[in-house]
């Protein structure tokens, strides 16, 4: 029983640590002008389906949405994709928390070099990201 309790305690600690790290990443993103708004959810659903290059029918089975009709309404923005479901989808396919609530359309136009830079930035800690962003702003003449 003690081993099980230890395991549960470690699992809870790790989950809390992951949540705190994600909150630091979200704070860093906000500090650098990333805006979060639920209005982006419908467009991001379309982007995600295009990325997977699948039909709505196949995509809803991946996401666990109850029906194609409901999914179509989400994708067209006729029905709001609830925050709970958006977070669940993000988690299930490994997207960063709040991915659905930011404007991701500009990511479609990144060059391979820019995409590589984004991927490198994602693995460094938030403080290093802040320093790098400040340095880039100075280099481009956009201030600190």
Key words describing this protein structure:
144 residues; 434 Repressor (Amino-terminal Domain); 66% helix
Describe this structure in words.
This protein has seven helices and no strands. It is mainly α. α1 (2-31) packs parallel to α7. It starts with a helix and ends in a 5-residue tail after the last helix.
Helix content: 55-70%
Give the termini separation: 54 Å
The outline comes out as flat
Portion of residues in beta strands equals under 5%
Per DSSP, the total helix count is 7
> CATH superfamily membership of one domain, which one?
lambda repressor-like DNA-binding domains
Give the overall average pLDDT. Answer: 82
CATH class of one domain: Mainly Alpha
Computed Rg: 18 Å
Strand-pairing-aware structural class: mainly alpha
* Uncertain regions spanning at least 5 consecutive residues: none
CATH architecture of one domain: Orthogonal Bundle
Order of helices and strands: HHHHHHH
Q: What name does CATH use for the topology of one domain? A: 434 Repressor (Amino-terminal Domain)
Main sheet summary: none
Number of strands: 0
